[in-house]
Protein 1
Amino acid sequence: MRGKMQKFGLIAMGALLGVMLSLNYSAVADKKVDSPLPVEELRAFAEVFGKIKSDYVEPVEDKKLINEAINGMLSGLDPHSAYLDTDAFKELQVGTQGEFGGLGIEVGMEDGFVKVVSPIEDTPAFNAGIKSGDLIIKLDDTPVKGMTINDAVKRMRGKPNTQIILTVMRKGQNKPLVFTITRAIIKIKSVKSKLLESGYGYVRVTQFQEHTGENLAKALEDLIKQNKGPLKGLVLDLRNDPGGLLNGAVGVAAAFLPENSLVVYTEGRTEEAKMKLTANKENYLRGPKESDYLKNLPASVKSVPLAVLINGGSASASEIVAGALQDHKRAIIIGTQSFGKGSVQTVLPLGNGTAIKLTTARYFTPNGRSIQAKGITPDIVAEEATVNGVDKDSLFNLREADLERHLINGQDGNKPEAAPVKAPAPNQEAPAKGKGDSKSDATSGEREVVSKNDYQLNQAVNLLKGLQILKNR
């Protein structure tokens, strides 16, 4: 009987693969096939499927086996490719619009555990003290080992005002840390701004969303109005910005660059993966009917002295902006080496309401530098304020090159560029409030846009003032 079941499983799987392969052939008929189909491997796959169907201790649905096989195919490629079931696909679409439920952390998988890439500013996880590089080992009482990334994200998502306990391992700590976090509706304000003092403005982009470009344009207009005239200098803060939508990054870069300047280009195996995106409205607007939100920006925005802040939490879209402004010599980049996520993920919807997120290309700056596993090297290195001589945030920095199965750079390995100018170390040894503090400097209940103790920001402002003095001379 068991032999018959095995044979039936193999026959059924063979028929299924035959259908899949015929569909695949019809879909790629116009594409060059570089190698024959791996018949032996497909036969092994069918045999394993049949063994599970006939011998596993409990019955398993075909749908579950196929979904897990798809999961394995994608998660084995690189840290950013993934299978999105119906719920995950919907959450991805909602998340880019700036509002979703959960804790507020960007995560990936490593060694079977969930690893925190970056907590999103002003979210429950951020305020609780979750750090970049934290390894989540338990969600409530359930070990994470063996979960897929989608399963882990589902458990972290939930109704507002409900709690979840995260147990994490952190570099430099001898025992796990336990955080009890209350879920909330995550409303991300992607652009924040402030007039630091007369003539000097500050704009922070926390994440690149659908409306980031137009929100930036409005923030710049407001700063110029508050200043009652053109600014003498502007700081664009991209620190701990995990990235987001590509058209948002092009829009932010286009606000400061001449029209039609190259912002980024991509290279991949297919023609669709090869793009050149310029500072042109066709590349940053969401559709032909949308009005150009950069059209009425004051001309002074294109020439205002600009300093851009980056650090190890600046990834993807934020690296595209920093790289474009650096290559065009439009801004001076200050801070520390960025994350190094220079790969393009394309979301490909499937017919059953699911999708795959597949790495399809690499990003390159206008001068042809690959961002992948290397990042953007600042023109001036300015470390965070130290405590007893140690940069406490650097202990938790996680970069693309640290992730398992990351794509190599493809140019000169993962080595950083030539050493940039290094700013003098901070004078103070006292701890300044950082992204891990749960208390706010604000008196109104909302976190301050920027802290007066922000050493890197102070270095940027001092640089802009120095440029202004030279200009006046």
Protein 2
Amino acid sequence: MFPDDFRAGVRAALPSLLGLVPFGLVAGIAAVNAGLSPLQAIGLSFVVFAGASQLAAVDLLAQDASLAVVVVTAVVINLRMAMYSASIAPYFESLRRRWELVCSYLLTDVGYALSITEFADDEGTSRLWYYLGAAGAVWAIWQLATIAGVFLGTGIPEQWNIGFAVPLVFLTLLVSEVSDRPRLVAALIGGSVAVVGVNWPLNLGLIGGALAGVGSGVLVDRRDG
């Protein structure tokens, strides 16, 4: 039914999909507990389709942050996608516009990493189908896990106060990503600024922390470079 390269992309993504399930469940549960209706929570997942950005947006919505702060925060967190796009775009330059739009929507860390490695090592691969297999599998599992989390969240009593799950997930992501000095400095500076700015108006402490973390990490990386 599907080309061999599509199935190869799905197989390559399988090991990463297991880690998406609990992440997606937390995103769905957190969205409902932030006050979103099930339809709004599912719509957010389909439109945004970005794990860390979704969780950050949900956390800010739960704190009654302004829409502008929510959007800016999500954009800052997802700035890396611009670099991914610039890197992978040459492999898709022969595609029609509608397929470029589909590929841009499906772009994630996992889909990019698997595809860019495959494209560099195997010139005989159908790039579009392989990418659709890998990135499409990530999309499908994320949406299913989020939807499951949404309906699971509607049955969890408010007194359980599971809001701690969102910062816990971010801490898990942080620990796995701090693998060198620039990232360590970015985590320490960004986290410190965010904590200091916890009472800043419009929840700007989070944006300030993100910008300070990125800036300090880049400076250290250039200095070590």
Protein 3
Amino acid sequence: MPTLLSPGARTVVRLVKADREKVRYGARVLRDDGVRVTVAAPWSLPSVRDFGFVRFEPGDEFTEHYWRDRWYAVKEVRDARGALKGWYCDVTRPVVVTAGELVSEDLDLDLWLSADGHEVRRLDEDEFAAGGLAGRDPRAADAARRALDELEALARAGGLPGLLTP
């Protein structure tokens, strides 16, 4: 039986990569059905991160969806006024949930879907190839590539937002 987080509870989200913590931040649990955990958190860095096609900045709010049985996490991004910027999707191993934290292991591949649904971008495929996951863990590398393909297909078909409804 999985550890279930209670709505309204505070938790810590830890994003790790190659067994090193990339970032840690506090979040509020919105729901946990035993498969998917949804949390809300503000942009966790004190500075702007400009990707060229979107800027994450202080005041942005993220609604983050993590699955215990899927190889990705999807983050809905809104600005400080509540306007939707889009969805940032991280290809990850299935999330590990304990009473105090969610641990999400980043596998380098990402996808961006703009708020209007017209811009779908596969990101960091070069970083994924250079990272050597295929040599260390071919099964995980295959799962990561399949997850990115699944996310892209959902985004292009307009189904990504529907994936996130309760």
Protein 4
Amino acid sequence: MNMSGPILITGGAGSVGRLLVQRCREADLTVRVFDLPFCDFSGLEGENGIEVVKGDITNASNVAEAVQGVGAVAHLAALLPPASEGNRDRTWAINVEGTASILQAMTTGAPDAVLVFSSSVSTYGDTRADTPPVQVTHSQTALDIYAESKIASEARIRESPVDAVILRIAGVSVPVLQEPPEVWPFTAEQRLEMVHRDDVVTALFKSLITPEARGKTLNIGGGPTWQIHGRQYVADHFELLGVPVEMASFRGGDEPGWVDWYDSAEAQQLLDYQQNSYEDYLNTLREEVARMLEDDDD
């Protein structure tokens, strides 16, 4: 696998970023990690094939240094909800102007590199009245500042000469037992499709190395096995915890979440990333619960 320079991963010290670094190194690709100076770079700094560049995505000179000479960029750095909703100017500076800085730096410092941009299905807005699955051609209507920033970032990318792949990623399910939220961010009746975290990493990695993906905008969802409804998703998680689903609190119908079912057929054909079914995900959680129970018995 030939790459003219290292793969830059912005936000590379984060959870998904670290897994993407690992995937790239397993393929014997060199990686440049760019993240804020106060991040935890343990397991990255000083490792063979990994270069760490510490800086701020809102600082154009930091970005230019990170981008210089790379063969590809996976742009994961962003301010996510709920933090993104507190200060629109800050979110815009990080998510939109930061993306613009990446594009400018690539134009001058890595003109042949491909950009893989982590966008979001939240950009589609409220799609409950539409016939599923949601296509990438669907209109984009922001329900929050985060989605607004992703829509604006996508527009900057399309206006740029940079070769890019835009991945609109569904809600990510992490295969670790977690405390449920006080209020689930969707209604009980709402169509819901999440995607396994490891499959997101696979989609990002394959987008970097698949020439046929260039120029594409793709939905990254879990696939048919993940296409359920809000109540079922919560009931399955509450069953693992031994809690009745009746105790769950869902978002009110007048304030829907942006979840739905998504058409990811083209993404799957190009990237072959859907490797963990919904049942696989639940089985991982069941195994974790079983281990916890065994530990309690010891």
